Amino acid sequence: MSQSDILDRLSSLDTNTVSDALDFLGLKGATYGLQPLWDCPKIVGRASTVKVGPKTDVAPAAHLLTPVIDAVTTDDRILVIAGGTEGVSCWGDIIANASKIKRIRGTIIDGMSRDIDGSRDVAYPVYGRGVTMISARNRVVQYDSGIPLEMRGVTVNQDDYVIADRCGTVFVPAARIEEVLDLGERIDRRQNLMVQAVRAGHPVSEVMHDSQFEAIRTDAPKSQDAPSQPGRNPKKASAEDEELIALFADSDTPGVSDALDKLGISGQAFGIMPLTDYSKVTVGTAFTVRYVPASDPPGSVGDFIDDVAVGDVVVIDNGGRTDCTVWGDIMTQYAGIRGIAGSVIDGVCRDVNRAISDDYPLFTAGRWMRTGKDRVQVGGVNEPIGIGKVRVVPRDIVVADANGVVIVPRDRAREVAEVARQVENSEAGIRKLISAGASIAEAREKLGYHTLQRKD
Fold first, then answer.
1. 199 is in an annotated binding site
2. SUPFAM superfamilies from the entry (predicted)?
């Protein structure tokens, strides 16, 4: 099997699944305490090991890590650094930029990083124990590279495999990778089947019984065990949906909000906020859902999701209720499998760790743990609803990011996108003038800042 195939298979899993596979095989590889140091994406690659430690002499030395970074010649590398000193950095923004240029996939540090905003600004993933402002210069030096390391109790060799995501970091011995992948894929299939069983109404005590997990050891990837292409969503976005979504690919909610103001359109969803500080913008077409108080006997709470197309954003009107949730981890996992872009809820969600670990975009009025089952039910789908004081019509365009959520009426989407682009270009021009030495008043006057959001 080629390295590319191995990395692709590993990328399709998460650290939870790989950790479970290692447990089944009696291998150590999962670490505790090496977490993402900014809201960075999952990384998968092969280890380039580096040993660092305290500087014990006064002679000048090359900055730690630079020889290893300069020596990288392939695009599958992850730097794995052991020996960091508590409170002292062994990573910063300059070497993050250098690593990005060398196409290194990320860095795992059993230690600290500083200048973490610099790593984030160039989208360079860094995982470690924490952040600090204290420089490594004259405190920490590189001892060796390409050697076995101890990372939080796990031995990591040069060229071992690495996977890291929101839940942490896992190392896989190179000699066992195919075995781990085979078992990990079986675990993943089994867990998807368990989700489907729960959704079909089977008791969770039966579905999650220990015997079901133990059966993974002997599971074979037979066609009768799981549907082909499990979870594959047959519902695709239309050509027009894709065109309208693409119009907002380079926008964010502040720019779209300003465009809505200039055009006299109400579209800012009040009080609907991101679950976490998302670094990317979610754009999709609205699949609307309206919840109502439960009847006797209660009705369905979530089957609508089978009708949502790839790239849609589920927009749920639960009347702003915060006493019961309408979204949890099973819905998160299933939506992710189905290629749904995200969910916007005028109400609350629960099981937030799952959404964060899966990097599934959720925008809500809050979070709480109490189920909505037997308290609310679906009252209608794909009909006009209200979200945060904004009317949402099915197939409207949803734009959501770390600032909140805006709704763009579908029939005004092209107009809004054009104005948003003009606003964002003007603001970029102002920032450029300020960087060149202009005063903020001069820059704003020259590019008409005070009229950017004003109605024509």
1. no
2. RraA-like
Separation of alpha carbons 385 and 382, rounded Å: 9
| pTM to 2 decimal places | 0.51
Distance of CA 241 to the CA centre of its chain: 23
Distance of CA 52 to the CA centre of its chain: 31
DSSP string, 343-395: EEEEEEE--HHHHHHTT--EEEEEE-----TTTEEEEEESS-EEETTEEE-TT
Query: From CA 207, how far away is CA 9, in angstroms rounded?
Result: 26
pLDDT at 209: 59
Q: Which two tokens stand for residue 204?
A: 């969770």
Phi and psi (nearest 5°) for 446? -65, -40
345 is in an annotated binding site: no
Tokens (6 digits) for 271: 């009080």
- CA-based torsion, 316, 318, 322, 324: positive or negative: negative
The yes-or-no verdict on residue 222 having pLDDT over 70 is no
350 known ligand binder:
yes
- Span 89-109, pLDDT tens digits: 989 999 999 999 999 999 999
351 is in an annotated binding site: yes
